[in-house]
Design a protein that fits this description.
heterodimer, A: alpha/beta, Aspartate Aminotransferase, domain 2, seven-stranded mixed sheet, globular, B: alpha/beta, Aspartate Aminotransferase, domain 1, 3 domains, four-stranded antiparallel sheet, 15 helices, 19 strands
């Protein structure tokens, strides 16, 4: 059979295993694994070894399930089959965060080579020269890609990278004795972390709303800027995919009051080799290595937010720094003005390896090809999606958007009562991941955000659009059908997916049992 | 610039994935000598041309019209020529990885928040599944399995910790410590925390930065002395420093220096008497044998779950957890996503929903609790697999094995002349060995141990100068008696 040649739709049904919770599977006495025991010689010398614990000895073993190994393996295999990762679907749906293809050989090395898996981060530097070399060289590559002078790979995710940049901004002003700077500025279409990380660092946050063209309001920003402003934390293009062509004016206005400018480039797919943070005047920037440089997302991590700074901010970077003396790579801990640390050791080494491999495999021309194809793919899908009945696109009429677009089902909702969350659920029935709507608040009503990046073929995009078109058609013909979806997925529609009432909260099995009175 | 090229070089280009086309689009000559990238399907020139036509652009740079010329980067990025084919790039990366010495070929006695433990094959099998490896923030329907696995992570950790509430995981133990401290401040409305001076310095550095503010610290940190003979908290100093301003008392148990805090229950009582929260940073693999923090008065348990089925990966296997009791006072203060078990349209079917989404910065931007983001989901799923495999008996047994082996190692090492076990307090898997009397620096000893293919314990002489030349040794279930004896012989020879 295969996909219908005319409609491009598939007859998809995801695995539906109806698996119990693992804690329901316990068969008293079963074992999942046997563990090493102390040898006779040790027992003879030490005895049972645990009486030293006295009162601190655990009296009742933890109530973990007792399950044989095959059943455990089967359980988690089944759960994996009930998960639609990028490996098994056309994952254009995760707009603002679409994951590109992560080459398999990278995974095979990251997960299987003992030169990565069995390395202790505190090993003597001479025994981890290969890892340190990749850190050092990746830093040189990202410096070139962004124009920044230094990079650090310690943060464990994108938001963490932005937080680290906020920490550096804070240290910078402090070092100058500038104690009045207590405010940070971001924009509504920048990622929520650009608002939340300065707040976590103790700043009052001012959020600029978009003007009628979708740009952050420059006048509002100038009004908000003052000698109290520590920094601005923004993306460009923003979540809408609209590039702000006057970005350097915003940066200059911030600099004029003594603030620093931090560029959240979590997703730089459309920009590689095209435009850099430095030319726009930024002082700091950040890349999500797991988005732009091919590390997989792993159900939300492990990940990395690589952040870059200009030379005058280098002294504040976290320790240790990976350095090279011309012969040997080493870790430098002796940096008295450093903000200290944001994570243990020096970050996720396997992710450094993947990014290093990916850039080495593409070179300058390949990176540019990535940017060009991701923007081309986006323009292509935008054209097709705009033609789908019920879709509207706000802002920037007639302008080209870069790597993503925030669309709206506002019209569909008016016409049929079917909203974006209904369409989102129905997506899965065709074997596509539920798309990303938008961060909150929904400035664009009934939003959905698509980003095809460079990994998807024209044919993939055509299939994706065919599904969107089909759901629109269904909404106009039989709105209830879409509203009650999904049908072909591991589970049916959840009636009340926002759980805010105390009596409904069950985040662990033991809490669930208590609430339900289950024994 | 076009140049004449020989047939043979064109053939090489052809078989290596480059090929020439001469396609007139909009009066311009299209890409020539173009590589087709296996990971960029639309780099095929004909397809690219067709798509450009569809989007009414004559060339690719038309799509970048919104970027002003002065902000464009006009040069070619100065990065090395690519190693394009998979075989060669793999070989290149392998050659770099092969430069490293690893803890399979060497005996490793370093821990310090990244201990080497046994990793069951099923853990690797499951976290290597492409579905999990490449999933992201999908909804509970098509990603139902991910949601269930993460719910099970919290549920199994809840049993291990004897606590009811966990969120999705955090970056690592340091972040879990830092966020626990801030949660406790929000719960109590107080802004001062007490930490032990024996704390892991990495944790302390992360905490200091995390509690800092633009003009002054958002939360004040007071350090409590510890008894340098026992490694345990100085209760007198705690009593002196705790007050109605104290939001929380934070201890590590087992401590960074290995010692088991036998006064934990008393510390908890003092803490609660002052209306503060009691936060215990713990090693989850110890909890089959050692009582979990909740059983001696902790209101927060936190730590790093890397020992539970995850390879060290040079520090890439870290992951943080925070657990509390079932009380809205605590639940409302978690900063990360929480997945709740609920009903679907189908009678009896398990579905999942977001719990108190507005807590998070995804829901409420700067009004959320701290900030949330991608952390360590794949490792949390791995922890679920690990704890399922281990079951109650596995956790009890592994705790005992570790304690026996660690005690044996400590006893054998301290038999060497001039080499002493620093504290005579019970310990779990780590202990401090003092080499001051041996007359050699830990640095030198560890260098010498490399000749024996041994990574000696972490040198803590700079972190804790009061202990002279000291190293933090870690012994786990994977170390055999023979390994320990080999270490002891090597140390004996080095210290001759």
């Amino acid at each position: 059979m295969g996909r219908d040649k005319n409609t491009l739709l598939r007859k998809f049904h995801q695995a539906r295993w109806d698996e119990e919770i693992i804690l329901e599977m316990s068969v008293p006495g079963e074992r999942g694994i046997l563990v090493p025991r102390a040898e006779e010689g040790i027992r003879a010398e030490i005895g049972e070894g645990v009486s030293v614990l006295g009162n601190l000895r655990r009296k009742v073993p933890p109530a973990l399930p007792e399950v044989n190994q095959m059943r455990i393996n089967r359980h988690y295999m089944r759960l994996s089959q009930e998960t639609l990762g990028t490996d098994v679907n056309i994952d254009i749906s995760q707009g603002t965060c679409t994951m590109k293809y992560s080459p398999k050989f990278q995974e095979h090395l990251a997960a299987r080579h003992p030169g990565m898996t069995e390395i202790h981060p505190l090993q003597d530097e001479d025994t981890i020269q290969g890892i340190l070399e990749m850190y050092y060289k990746l830093e040189q590559f990202l410096k070139e890609i962004s124009g920044m002078d230094y990079f650090c790979f310690q943060p464990g995710g994108g938001a963490h990278g932005v937080f680290t940049n906020v920490s550096i901004v804070r240290a910078y002003h402090k070092s100058r004795g500038d104690k009045e700077r207590t405010e940070a500025i971001t924009t509504m279409f920048s990622h929520p972390c650009d608002a939340a990380t300065p707040r976590t660092a103790g700043y009052k946050v001012v959020t600029l709303m978009p003007d009628e063209n979708g740009y952050p309001d420059l006048q509002a920003m100038k009004a908000a800027l003052s000698e109290r402003t520590a920094g601005i934390f923004i993306t460009n293009p923003e979540d809408t995919g609209i590039y702000n062509p006057r970005i350097d004016e915003y940066v200059k206005a911030a600099h004029d009051v003594g603030a620093l400018c931090s560029y959240d480039q979590a997703n730089a797919n459309g920009m590689l080799g095209i435009a850099r943070a430095i030319e726009a005047g930024f002082d700091l920037c950040q890349f999500n290595i797991h988005k732009t440089f091919s590390a997989p997302h792993g159900c939300m991590g492990p990940a990395m937010g690589a952040h870059g700074v200009k030379a005058e901010l280098a002294k504040f970077l976290p320790v240790p720094r990976v350095e090279f003396d011309g012969k040997r790579y080493y870790l430098d801990y002796n940096r008295p003005e450093s903000i200290g640390r944001v994570r243990s050791f020096y970050g996720n080494a396997p992710i450094v390896m993947r990014a290093y491999a990916w850039i080495m495999q593409h070179g300058a021309e390949g990176l540019r090809e990535v940017a060009e194809c991701s923007v081309l793919n986006n323009n292509y899908i935008e054209k097709k999606i705009r033609e789908v009945p019920g879709v509207v696109v706000r802002y920037a009429k007639g302008k080209r958007r870069l790597e993503q677009v925030r669309y709206s089902w506002e019209k569909l909702k008016e016409d049929t009562g079917v909203g974006t969350e209904d369409v989102m659920r129905r997506m899965g029935d065709f074997g596509l991941q539920h798309y990303w709507t938008s961060h909150h608040p929904w400035v664009v009503p009934e939003p959905f955000t698509l980003e095809p990046c460079e990994s998807y073929s024209k044919d993939d995009i055509d299939e994706y659009v065919a599904v969107i078109r089909q759901i629109s058609k269904e909404a106009y013909e039989d709105p209830e059908f879409v509203k009650n979806s999904p049908y072909n997925l591991p589970v049916h529609k959840v009636l009340a997916p926002s759980i805010d009432e105390t009596e409904r909260i069950a985040v662990t099995w033991r809490q669930y049992k208590k609430k339900k009175g289950v024994k | 610039m076009r140049r004449e090229r020989s047939l043979s070089s064109r053939f090489i280009d052809f078989i290596s994935g480059r090929y020439q086309i001469n396609n007139e689009i909009g009066g311009k000559v299209m890409d020539e000598n173009k590589i087709v990238y296996p990971y960029i399907p639309n780099s095929v020139p004909e397809i690219k041309a067709q798509m450009l036509k569809e989007v009414e652009a004559s060339e690719i740079m038309d799509l970048y019209i919104e970027i002003p010329e002065h902000l464009k980067y006009k040069r070619k990025l100065n990065i090395p020529e690519p190693i394009s084919d998979e075989y060669s790039i793999r070989r290149h990366i392998e050659s770099l990885l092969n430069k490293n010495k690893n803890c399979s070929e060497y005996l490793n006695f370093m821990g310090a928040s990244c201990a080497q433990h046994f990793v069951p094959a099923v853990c690797d099998e499951i976290n290597g599944r492409g579905e999990f490896l490449t999933a992201y923030v999908g909804e509970s329907y098509a990603d139902h399995g991910k949601w269930q696995a993460l719910f099970e992570y919290g549920s199994l950790m809840g049993e291990l910790l004897d606590m009811d509430i966990l969120s999705c995981p955090l970056y690592d133990g340091t972040q879990a410590a830092a966020t626990s401290l801030r949660m406790a401040c929000r719960c109590t409305g107080r802004k001062e925390v007490l930490l032990p001076k024996s704390i892991n310095q990495e944790v302390l550095m992360v905490v200091r930065n995390y509690l800092q503010g633009p003009t002054k610290p958002q939360v004040d940190i007071q350090m409590i002395d510890f008894d340098t003979k026992t490694g345990l908290l100085d209760i007198k100093d705690l009593k002196k420093k705790i007050s109605s301003k104290t939001a929380s008392v934070f201890i590590e148990n087992p401590g960074y220096l290995g010692c088991i805090e036998t006064q934990a229950e008393e510390i908890g009582k003092i803490t609660h008497k002052n209306g503060a929260e009691f936060i215990v940073y713990t090693d989850p693999i110890s909890l089959g044998m050692i009582a979990p923090p909740s059983q001696y008065g902790a209101t927060f348990a936190c730590g790093d779950f890397h020992p539970l089925g995850i390879h060290m990966q040079c520090g890439g296997g870290q992951g943080g957890f925070i657990a509390t009791h079932d009380d809205m006072k605590y639940i409302a203060e978690f900063k990360d996503l929480m997945f709740g078990l609920t009903e679907t349209l189908e009678e009896g079917e398990y579905g999942f929903g977001e719990v108190l989404f507005d807590r998070t910065s995804y829901g409420s931007r700067e009004k959320g609790k701290e900030f949330t983001g991608t952390s360590t989901g794949l490792w949390a799923i791995t922890v679920a697999v690990y704890l399922s495999l281990m079951g109650p008996k596995g956790m009890v047994e592994i705790g005992q094995t570790i304690m026996q082996k660690a005690q044996y190692a400590a006893r054998q090492i301290s038999k060497i002349e001039g080499v002493n076990l620093l504290f005579n307090t019970p310990f779990f898997k780590e202990f401090v060995i003092n080499f001051s009397m041996a007359g050699k620096s830990v640095r030198k000893i560890n260098k010498a141990l490399l000749e024996y293919k041994i990574f000696g314990g972490k040198d803590i002489s700079d972190e804790f100068p009061q202990f002279g030349q000291s190293a933090l040794y870690c012994v786990t279930e994977i170390v055999t008696k023979e390994d320990i004896d080999k270490l002891v012989n090597a140390l004996r020879e080095i210290n001759k």
